């Protein structure tokens, strides 16, 4: 991916298999969010292709990818603040893989029970604390019935206890067979959840493997922690 003559991503070769939970880390400016935008269709790559479940989706818009089973949360939750929690989730139902045979109201309630928001379903989204706003962000994506879930620094701003609750929810989602790609700055959350880590720096993948092996790699120590390579 290049903007003018500036290459933000280069030589990215990434494969994620069904059912994996893969963490992506790297310093600011590494290209992580740009990669997320390419996967979701927010950006069109200047070279290369994006495949999902065997299909070339490079030319598909974000909404079309969502209908095929790709969901994404944003680093800063973006609820419809003038709507209730329930209404926010209900709006999302039907924009993904949910078929007309599903009762939208039932789907919305099922999601809210799963994410622990059923008790605040009638509250205005604007009144929620940060953890519940993160849960609502997840709820809206889950209402589209994703097969692949992209998480963009969803742990940012949470206390350690709140982060633990969020990790438990993400593990619960993953246990259902949802494939997850998770960009996160809070390394503890990734180490507690992911079986595989990818580290990016300078628009490239510099390490890919088991979490402990990636963290201990000299290139990662240098790029991410500023240690001597």
From TrEMBL:
Residue span, ABC transporter domain: 1-227
Statement: the UniProt record of this protein carries the keyword ATP-binding: yes
GO cellular component: plasma membrane
Keyword terms: ATP-binding, Nucleotide-binding, Transport
GO annotation terms (biological process): D-alanine transmembrane transport; L-alanine transport; L-isoleucine import across plasma membrane; L-valine import across plasma membrane
PROSITE patterns listed in its UniProt record: ABC_TRANSPORTER_2
Pfam families, A to Z: ABC_tran
Single GO molecular function: L-valine transmembrane transporter activity
Protein name (database record): ABC transporter ATP-binding protein
The species this protein was found in: Yoonia rhodophyticola
């Amino acid at each position: 991916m290049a903007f003018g003559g500036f290459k933000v991503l280069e030589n990215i070769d990434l494969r994620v298999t069904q059912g994996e939970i893969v963490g992506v880390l790297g310093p600011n400016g590494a290209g992580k969010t740009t990669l997320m935008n390419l996967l979701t269709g927010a950006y069109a790559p200047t070279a290369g292709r994006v495949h999902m479940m065997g299909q070339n989706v490079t030319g598909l818009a974000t909404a079309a990818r969502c209908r095929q089973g790709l969901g994404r949360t944003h680093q800063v939750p973006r609820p419809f603040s003038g709507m209730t929690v329930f209404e926010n989730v209900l709006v999302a139902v039907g924009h993904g893989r949910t078929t007309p045979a599903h009762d939208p109201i039932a789907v919305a309630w099922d999601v809210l029970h799963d994410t622990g928001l059923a008790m605040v379903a009638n509250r205005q989204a604007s009144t929620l604390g940060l953890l519940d706003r993160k849960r609502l962000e997840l709820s809206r994506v889950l209402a589209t019935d994703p097969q692949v879930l992209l998480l963009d620094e969803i742990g940012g701003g949470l206390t350690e206890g709140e982060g633990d609750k969020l990790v438990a929810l993400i593990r619960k989602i993953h246990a259902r067979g949802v494939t997850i790609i998770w960009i996160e700055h809070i390394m503890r959350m990734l180490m507690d959840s992911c079986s595989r880590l990818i580290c990016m720096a300078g628009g490239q993948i510099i390490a890919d493997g088991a979490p402990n092996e990636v963290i201990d790699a000299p290139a990662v120590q240098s790029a991410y922690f500023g240690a001597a390579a």
